[in-house]
Amino acid sequence: AQTVTQSQPEMSVQEAETVTLSCTYDTSESDYYLFWYKQPPSRQMILVIRQEAYKQQNATENRFSVNFQKAAKSFSLKISDSQLGDAAMYFCAYRSASTSGSRLTFGEGTQLTVNP
Amino acid sequence: NAGVMQNPRHLVRRRGQEARLRCSPMKGHSHVYWYRQLPEEGLKFMVYLQKENIIDESGMPKERFSAEFPKEGPSILRIQQVVRGDSAAYFCASSTYRGRDEQFFGPGTRLTVL
Q1: Short-list A113, A79, A76, A78, CA closest to A92
Q2: Is A42 within 8 Å of B107 when comparing Cβ atoms?
Q3: What pLDDT digit, counting tens, does each position of B20-57 carry?
Q4: Which of B33, B41, B108 is closest, CB to CB, to A103?
């Protein structure tokens, strides 16, 4: 079974600074997807960024980028120029690319605080 | 294009009552997933359904919980004889017919069992 681990229960960053959230995962599969979701106080799950395992290039979405290290099974999220609106719980998630593997497996989350 | 809709947003039940949670997927989506988020925890997969079929229910508790996704109407997650440990946020997500595409999440239903 796949597992996802987020070792940082809480992180804080100053507004306009950069912060990196860590995520590691365990799988025996070679083809899969990785995601970062944001959950603000409203509890709505918002997809921040996704990475296909077969792609070597790290995904980027505006101020959000990932450092995907397949061999190390590491998938960290970097938030640049942090804004107050980035404050939220962030979840790393894994999904198999097999035809039957549609479920998402989530980590326990990292609570990000942005200080003005 | 409306997103995934869940209702009710908040549901309060007393121990022993039944809870029914509804999920209407995005237009054009025929795959539905239910996840549960206990307080201070991440989301845990419960069940994956396509229209009229349960594809994967390996995350569903064996007793008291059931799910359906009929040909017409929303998907229903049903919890019978609720207990305090069922208090959680229940999220529904949907995806296209291919089932491997991005899952779009609803706003969740927060169930409180008194």
Answers
A1: A76
A2: yes
A3: 999 999 998 889 999 999 988 889 999 999 988 999 99
A4: B33
